[in-house]
Amino acid sequence: MPASKPTPTYRIAPSILAADFARLGDEVRDVIRAGADWIHFDVMDNHYVPNLTFGPMVCAALKPHAVRADGTRVPIDVHLMVQPVDELAAAFAKAGADLISFHPDACIHVDRSLQAIKAAGCQAGLAFNPAAPLSVLEWTIDKLDLVLVMSVNPGFGGQSFIPGALTKIEQVRRLIERSGRDVRLEVDGGINADNIRSVADAGADTFVAGSAVFGKPDYASTISALRERLA
User: Fold this and answer.
1) What would the pLDDT profile of 21-34 be if each residue is shown by its tens digit?
2) pLDDT digit string, tens, across residues 150-182
């Protein structure tokens, strides 16, 4: 009989796009106490996408708050929805980001940008909009630590999950398995307790949750409910 696949290690990455901006430090600490694995930054520039959110100074200010009670650091996962990419990627690396992903269609030289992110000491990822092709992965998968599939159109929080993203997640999972590398498959957009299991079954192992976490009165019970669906 063929060997069974190992159970994936799932990550819950609450997006501070849905947090209370007036008390971001408290929000980050609260969601970490509630069991968050990563803190997700949705960085928008009002150019590549029609919204404007956080800069590197916010990342640097929140970095000291991204720590568990036992002193271990919680990774800061920066998703750049910006154009051009390189200057802001370097600034976020300097500000304390641990993972930086960007959209290949927002970048002139994808391979060079990935190398620059890694040279700055961060893990590197590529992000794909719902209608974006995945062909660039054939040439970059050996340089990636993360692939981010958007399950909504980028630019605004609180949107509903696009069901067609499940097919794209399955395609990315096959590419990762074929590569033989340990690459995270993250999904961002409309994730909640009703759909997280189907997203995991399609191949995702890391889940960005914005209003599904920060929009609820009890972060701990909400994150626990997400994990129960994954169990």
Assistant:
1) 999 999 999 999 99
2) 999 988 777 899 999 999 999 999 999 999 999
CATH architecture of 11-230: Alpha-Beta Barrel (3.20)
Name the catalytic one among 30, 45, 98, 188.
188
Strands 11-14 and 39-44 come out as: unpaired
CA-to-CA separations, 151 to 20, 74, 91, 185, 192, in angstroms, rounded: 23, 24, 27, 12, 12
Global pTM exceeds 0.70: yes
Give catalytic status of residue 70 as yes or no.
Answer: no
Active site (annotated) includes residue 42? yes
**Catalytic member of 42, 45, 77, 145:** 42
Q: How far apart are the first and last CA of the chain?
A: 24
Q: Distance between CA 203 and CA 195 in Å, rounded?
A: 13
Q: Which long-range contacts (CB under 8 A, 24 or more apart) does 226-229 make?
A: 226/12, 226/192, 226/193, 226/196, 227/10, 227/12, 227/35, 229/193, 229/196, 229/197
Where do the domains of the chain lie? 11-230
For residues 157 and 42, the answer to whether their CB atoms sit within 8 Å is yes
